[in-house]
């Protein structure tokens, strides 16, 4: 049981204005494993005020980029020392399998911090340009106070994807974790508290939707960086648009994995083990639409169904578990409703279904499920389910596969699996998504991620990740005549 009584504001741990609490419930045991403050409007205002003072009157925006980078290197070292604690805590909070939590939820953020520091050292903070009127200096200056609002599925990775480039750019930040996973956010506060950042540069408030809306609409916030559902993203975009507030949105996905006839099916299936089922299917980039040619459709369905049936489902604290529980009972019910819907739409369950996995008597589990005989127009093929559910859709040829992959309101990620990398590259160029893999799906920290269409606005990661937190300023100088 981990209990936090205070919020991290202005370099100090402060009691919230109201006694309201967030209970964190284990999705495996269904028991309370921790509590955190449920911040109200006054707490958000206090955090924004601290960030505003630190930006307007503090030293942080005025430091040289190399000085800010030194602080972030210290953060990486301090974070690495607590990777095991962080990974275990995230598993307790939201049920991510422990092996995934340690490798991706907790250790990948260390790599991300160091990668951003390396990029910052090469970033053109000031750049000279010769033009008709002489020499112009183009400066990239911090956008100001950033509100970073992050989801529960990969809480640390999404938080640091925003926090680190914002800080390296000279911004100050108010971070709001999801109400399902407040504990790891406050543990991050402990780590930050230990590296000696100036007061108010990072503030962490835990709370629900009311706190998030207060943060988005607060006049002291210059920029909102959000990861979450498309519906929530639309609301945030509307609120930011009313005040011309800068915003980046990383939203939902319904990514297609195209399996061509020349693909090594065994290697493809092994690659989809992670690409489709990582984090128990609770990732926006999961490859959940499996596109198989009609020539090889039956073999692909059988192979994907065998994969789903082979996955070890159970206690997320067991290092051998590959699929854990879903984050909440509400999410479990939602996924089960989609499984029922798929059958009503005429798709056939080739593996899994809604029954509780054998041997599990409690917890919010859903068996890894594969639908066959599916059409891309079905709701199970068009709507983000956010669970371990795949839909196998037939295509006639590569042109048809591209058409089906693009026939989605989302455009976040995708992949193609083929023995011909050049053919894969040709297909990659025609799919309207923010990131794409050939014979894999992964996104390197040096590269930008984000989405087309309903998958969001803007990019995070890589050099482009800094552009979201800076404003360009052009300075043209002229000598005065003597």
From TrEMBL:
The keyword Glycoprotein does not apply. The active site is at residue 250. InterPro entries: Ald_DH/histidinol_DH, Ald_DH_C, Ald_DH_CS_CYS, Ald_DH_CS_GLU, Ald_DH_N, Aldehyde_DH_dom. Its EC number is 1.2.1.3. Keywords: Oxidoreductase. GO terms for molecular function: aldehyde dehydrogenase (NAD+) activity. The keyword Cell membrane does not apply. Belongs to the aldehyde dehydrogenase family. This is aldehyde dehydrogenase (NAD(+)). It comes from Mycolicibacterium vanbaalenii (Mycobacterium vanbaalenii).
